[in-house]
Amino acid sequence: MEEKKKQELIEKLRAKNWPEKDIQKTVRIMESREYVDKSNSNVSSSRILYWTALLVLMVCNLLITVFLVPFLLVLGGTLIYIIIAVIGFVFGLFFNLLLRDIENLEAHHHLFATIFIPLLSLLNIALMTTASARIAEIINVSFKLNPAIMSVFYVSAFMLPYLYGMFKYELSKFKY
Q: pLDDT per residue over 90-131, tens digit each?
């Protein structure tokens, strides 16, 4: 427990007329519960977890891209847009959960992930629609999906959980 916080606690308890014996016991309990990571392993663990999570998200995005190509050729326009939005939303929830729960991340980690993952997703959607268009051309099937619209659906749905979390966090700063 920091010395300043310790002194503040002692002063508050004295102001409430606590007996000195109880104040010292409370301070000892508070100090014994405190965990200090002198090796900074939490920081390095968080960084490893962060980069591993980003790698997993990249691989999952790529797998989804490969998985969706046949569906793009078979399914109709509206249904595929709904499927892409749902997949984007689910990945967005997973992404938001990872970023929010990893401790010891600095602002630049959040900024990098917030920009990098949606850009990678846009690239994957572009690759997916290009590959689908080529395959459709080879097997002589019509392909009429617009990659830009698909990208907007995916990235918008992907960013919704993160934006909601940021909005909720900003609102929590204000006390009514």
A: 888 888 887 776 655 667 777 777 787 778 777 877 787 777
Tell me how long the chain is: 176
Expressed in angstroms, the distance from the first to the final Cα of the chain is 30
For residues 21 and 24, what is the distance between their CA atoms, to the nearest angstrom?
A: 5
| Alpha-carbon span 124 to 41, nearest angstrom | 35
Going by the DSSP 8-state scheme, the letter that residue 174 receives in this structure is S
User: Domain boundaries in the chain?
Assistant: 3-33, 41-173
Enumerate the H helices of the chain as residue ranges.
3-15, 20-33, 41-74, 77-101, 107-138, 147-173
pTM over 0.90: no
CA dihedral (114, 120, 125, 129) in degrees, to 10, reads: 160
Beta-carbon contacts of 88 under 8 Å, excluding residues fewer than 6 positions away, are 121, 153, 154, 155, 156, 157, 158
